[in-house]
Structure formats: structure tokens, C-alpha cells
């Protein structure tokens, strides 16, 4: 008896502790009869679960099984609650009891989310019991039967639970990728409009292994491109109901997690594949993807949540601009990560061709939109030779007619507005990367930007003042339309790009001189109250063009002297452009 007591004693004690812990959770029947009591009771456990010791004490299978039963019953209750319809029979929302059942389910999912921090054994238990699959299925069903998502707390808890259920466990990450990609993953991400960072955490956790291997399905498949488009739309979205302080915190958290996600993608060479995939997306394909994301509502009735999602999706051009924005953010600075990314991009011929093509088509689109007389003519063979080769494809010449012919396909439309600004900023950061990384800057970039963007700056100047070769601007009053075009075409961003390209690169400086670009830059070294900082940007660009280049210095001296001779009142910026 003594031996048996010694053997069974510890077992009985563990069983008693487990039973006592299980009694902390409400009976499953309460989910149907008194969901508010379930919410109150489980919420107390959620608060306790913030303590590591409590989590480990309650991570045994008996407690987890009881919690899984509660979650399953709560999800069933949500699905059984009647919905309210309008006069036509269309679904509008749910009964008021839905909130109580929803609160109960949310509290259970919060507890499960916190317990996942105990490790893979707990995570695997939730997957083995089918809880993750049931949660995802419930969300997909909601998108088919609800015009709007559930409460904000539901939309924040569900992505957190699914993300935590695979965090740090490669086996479950691969399983989640196989089972949830693409539609289940997209359905969960689509809940995250109030807190977009949750979508990036979720995708980062689920696709961690795939992202590490060249981007995986999210960069290489059409379905992955749709999920990427959804993530970009979340990045683009605003929470109209949030206070300013909350909005700033939200944006900071979103930027942090978006940076982590896109850094893992772009540093593994996935930008070209991902960008090309998003650029080639068609609206009808996106619509079909969203419809496939939800459970079939039955009959001929379309999913009710599609209109809600469609209203929040960004435009195709916006998505492309956001992709350049994410890349530009990773190219700022001088650390080793920036150098490695710059080397990878500049050595990728596909990326170089993509960047040149996007810039040329965008300039063509802008010239068409604002009726700017711009045609980028290919430079002479002698000028191109300064870039290291006589047969570089600079994507020139580009005309408005060429852009119009290609614009029938959305993939070949140029970028305008803020998207064009992001393209310019990314190009400007990439132009200075060789200074810090030691990589050789592509001759195609130099030729395309100095032939395309400089000639576009020339066209903008002509739009404001007429003949570029005139030595004085006296008596010339630019039109308001010309000022608007200069602003909308982001003239300052283009000047900054050109200034960065010619900085410390003898090939670029010589190419600029041989193609007449020095005169274009010098023409922007004048003050204009309607274009603040124009003179500063122009002077910086000219200074970069003449640094350690005597031929350029001499040419600029001659041009400045001509301006001063024609108009004695013109300020001669010899010292500012580095000529003294």
C-alpha cells in the first residue's frame, strides 16, 4: 500500500491540480445559455495568462482540450446566430446576441493566443484539434455573409492567434503555408484594416521559410501577388476613426513590421518577380481572387464582404508606387544591409531593365498628362561610350505615341502622382549607394536618367520660360499651368535624382557635358518664390557635376559669364557651384 501510495501520489496530485485548473474555465453549455459569463470568466484567465508562470502551469493537455472545446462551441454559436435581412432578403448583419457570443469567442482566442507562447507543444495541440482551421473557416464564412467585419477586437484577435499558433515552429509554418495559402491567409489579412501590422506579422510568420528562399509563393505566383496587393492596400489605408495620436502609433507599428517583411523579401532578390507580378495583375483577376477567398454563400448571391474589401483596395498604380517606397526605405543609410541590397539590385539585369523602363514610361505618361513637349532622344555613340559600352540599351527614344500604344495594357502604363515620386526617390537613393557600397553603378541607369530626366527638366523649363538658350529671364512670367506641371511632375525629385547620379561619378559627369545637360541644370539655379528651394536643388546638382572635373568646370564658367554679360543683375554663383 505504501509503495502504491508513493507511485500514485504524484499522479493524483497532478490530476487534482489539472481538475482545479479546468474548473477555472466555464462549462461548454454556457456558450449557448450565458455567453456573457463565459466572456467574464475567460477574460480573468486572459489577464492571468500574461504571467509566464501561470501560462506554463496551464499548458497541459487537459486544460488545452477544455479550451479547445470552448473555442469550438463559441465558433459554432457564431455560425448559428440568425442574421438580419433587409426587405429584399439581402443579409445586413446579425442579431444583438451576436456581440455576446463574439465577445466570448474572442476571450477564448485571446487565451489560446497567449498560451501559444509556451512553445510548439501547445501550438501543435491547437492545430491537431483543428482549431486554427475552424477559425479560418469561420472568417471565410463571415466574408460571404456579412457586409462588414465583426467587432474591432475580433479583427485584432484572430490574426494574432493564427500568427502565434505557428511562431517559431518551422513544421507548423510549412503546414500553415500548405493549408492556408492563398485564400485562408488572405481572408485573415483582410481583417486587419484597423491594425495593418497584424497582417504583416501573420504573413511573416506563416511564410517565413518560403520568404527565406527567394520569396517563395508570395513573389512567384499570381495568388501570392494578390496577397501582396492586399498587404500594400493595408499599408495604404487610413483609420478614419482613430485619434491623431493613435493614428501615429498605428502608422509607426505598421512601418516597423512592413519593413521587416519587405526587407526579408527584397534582400533575397524577390523585388523583380514581385513587382512584375503586381504590375501584371488585372482588376478582374483580383476580383475573382477575392470571391474565391470566401466560402460559397450559396445560390447566385455574391459574397457580401466583397464590396467592403473593394472599397479599401488601393489602385494598381498606387501598389507599384508603394513597392518602390518599400525599397527606397531600405536603401537609406550607410550600413552593411544597405550595401548588400544595393549590390544585389545593381547586379540584377532584370531589375535594371525594369527600373529604366518604369522611369521612361512614367515620363512619357507625365508629358501626355500635362501636354509637355518632351521627347527623350537617344544620345550620340560617343556620349554612350563614356558609360563603358557603345551598345547600351537606355530604353530610348520614348515618345508619347509609344506610351499611348503600350498604355492599352495596364502593365505598361507609366506612374504619375505620388507613385512617380516614390520611383524617383528610390532611384535617387540607389544612385548614391555605390559611394558607400563600392559597387559600380550601372551605365544603363546613368544614360537613362541623364538622357530621360534631364531632357524632361529641359521640357519643364521651356514650358515655364520658353527658349532654354536665352541668357536672361527678364520679363518672362510663367503661367500657373506651367507651375502646376512642374510641381505635379516632381521637378525637385528629378533634380535630386540627377544630382545624385552625377555625384562622384566621372562617367556620368562627362556624359552630362556631352549631351548638353550642364546648361539644363544651370538654368535651374535661379530663385523662384513659387518654387521654393529650386535654386538650392539646382546649385547642388551643378556642384556635383563639376566636382573633380575640369572640363565641366570650364564649361559652366563660360555659361555663367554669358548670363552675367547679358544681364548684369544676375547673381553669379561661382562660389556656390564650386568654381572658386
Strand proportion: under 5%
Number of helices: 32
Query: How many β-strands, per DSSP?
Result: 2
Distance between the termini: 104 Å
Uncertain stretches: 11-21, 82-96
Helix vs. strand class:
mainly alpha
Tell me the major beta sheet: 2 strands, antiparallel
Pfam family, one: Atx10homo_assoc
GO cellular component, one term: cytosol
Domain Ataxin-10: 495-569
InterPro entries: Ataxin-10/CTR86_families (IPR051374), Ataxin-10_domain (IPR019156)
Describe this protein with a few key phrases.
1% strand; 580 residues; two-stranded antiparallel ribbon; mainly alpha
Description:
This protein has a two-stranded antiparallel ribbon. α5 runs parallel beside α8 (131-145), α16 crosses α20 (316-330) and α22 crosses α24 (400-406). The chain is elongated, with a radius of gyration of 30 Å. Among the domains are: 1-129; 348-566, no CATH class. By secondary structure, the chain is mainly α. Helix content is 68%, strand content 1%.
Amino acid at each position: 500500500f505504501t509503495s502504491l501510495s508513493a507511485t500514485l501520489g504524484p499522479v493524483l496530485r497532478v490530476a487534482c491540480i489539472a481538475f482545479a485548473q479546468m474548473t477555472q474555465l466555464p462549462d461548454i453549455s454556457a456558450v449557448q445559455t450565458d455567453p456573457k459569463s463565459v466572456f467574464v470568466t475567460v477574460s480573468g484567465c486572459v489577464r492571468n495568462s500574461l504571467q509566464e508562470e501561470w501560462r506554463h502551469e496551464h499548458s497541459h493537455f487537459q486544460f488545452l482540450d477544455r479550451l479547445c472545446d470552448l473555442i469550438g462551441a463559441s465558433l459554432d454559436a457564431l455560425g448559428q446566430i440568425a442574421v438580419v435581412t433587409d426587405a429584399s432578403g439581402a443579409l445586413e448583419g446579425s442579431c444583438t446576441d451576436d456581440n455576446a457570443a463574439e465577445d466570448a469567442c474572442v476571450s477564448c482566442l485571446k487565451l489560446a493566443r497567449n498560451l501559444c507562447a509556451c512553445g510548439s507543444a501547445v501550438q501543435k495541440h491547437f492545430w491537431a484539434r483543428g482549431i486554427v482551421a475552424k477559425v479560418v473557416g469561420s472568417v471565410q464564412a463571415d466574408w460571404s455573409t456579412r457586409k462588414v467585419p465583426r467587432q474591432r477586437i475580433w479583427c485584432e484577435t484572430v490574426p494574432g492567434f493564427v500568427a502565434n499558433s505557428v511562431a517559431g515552429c518551422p513544421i507548423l509554418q510549412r503546414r500553415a503555408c500548405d493549408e492556408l495559402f492563398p485564400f485562408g491567409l488572405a481572408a485573415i489579412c483582410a481583417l486587419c484594416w484597423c491594425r495593418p501590422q497584424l497582417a504583416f506579422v501573420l504573413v511573416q510568420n506563416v511564410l517565413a521559410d518560403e520568404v527565406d528562399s527567394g520569396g517563395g509563393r508570395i513573389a512567384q505566383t499570381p495568388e501570392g501577388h494578390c496577397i501582396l496587393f492586399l498587404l500594400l492596400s493595408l499599408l495604404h489605408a487610413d483609420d478614419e476613426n482613430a485619434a491623431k495620436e493613435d493614428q501615429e502609433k498605428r502608422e509607426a507599428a505598421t512601418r516597423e513590421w512592413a519593413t521587416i517583411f519587405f526587407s526579408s523579401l527584397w534582400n533575397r532578390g524577390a523585388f523583380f518577380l514581385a513587382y512584375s507580378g503586381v504590375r501584371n495583375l488585372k482588376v478582374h483577376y483580383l476580383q475573382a481572387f477575392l470571391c474565391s477567398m470566401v466560402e460559397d454563400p450559396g445560390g447566385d448571391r455574391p459574397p457580401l464582404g466583397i464590396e467592403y474589401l473593394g472599397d479599401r483596395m488601393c489602385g494598381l498604380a498606387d501598389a507599384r508606387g508603394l513597392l518602390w517606397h518599400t525599397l527606397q526605405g531600405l536603401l537609406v543609410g550607410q550600413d552593411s544591409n544597405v550595401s548588400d541590397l544595393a549590390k544585389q539590385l545593381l547586379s540584377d539585369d532584370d531589375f535594371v531593365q525594369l527600373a529604366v523602363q518604369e522611369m521612361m514610361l512614367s515620363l512619357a505618361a507625365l508629358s501626355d498628362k500635362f501636354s509637355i513637349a518632351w521627347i527623350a532622344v537617344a544620345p550620340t555613340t560617343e556620349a554612350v561610350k563614356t558609360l563603358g559600352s557603345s551598345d547600351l540599351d537606355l530604353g530610348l527614344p520614348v515618345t508619347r505615341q509609344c506610351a499611348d500604344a503600350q498604355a492599352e495594357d495596364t502593365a505598361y502604363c507609366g506612374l504619375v502622382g505620388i507613385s512617380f515620386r516614390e520611383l524617383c526617390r528610390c532611384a535617387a537613393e540607389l544612385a548614391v549607394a555605390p559611394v558607400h557600397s563600392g559597387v559600380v553603378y550601372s551605365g544603363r541607369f546613368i544614360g537613362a536618367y541623364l538622357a530621360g530626366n534631364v531632357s524632361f527638366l529641359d521640357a519643364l523649363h521651356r514650358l515655364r520660360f520658353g527658349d532654354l538658350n536665352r541668357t536672361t529671364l527678364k520679363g518672362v512670367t510663367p503661367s500657373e499651368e506651367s507651375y502646376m506641371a512642374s510641381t505635379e511632375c516632381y521637378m525637385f525629385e528629378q533634380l535630386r535624382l540627377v544630382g545624385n547620379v552625377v555625384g562622384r561619378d566621372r562617367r556620368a559627369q562627362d556624359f552630362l557635358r556631352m549631351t548638353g545637360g550642364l546648361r539644363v541644370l544651370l538654368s535651374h539655379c535661379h530663385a523662384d518664390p513659387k518654387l521654393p528651394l529650386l535654386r538650392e536643388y539646382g546649385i547642388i546638382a551643378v556642384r556635383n557635376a563639376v566636382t573633380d572635373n575640369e572640363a565641366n568646370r570650364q564649361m559652366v564658367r563660360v555659361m555663367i559669364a554669358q548670363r552675367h554679360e547679358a544681364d548684369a543683375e544676375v547673381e553669379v554663383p561661382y562660389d556656390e557651384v564650386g568654381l572658386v
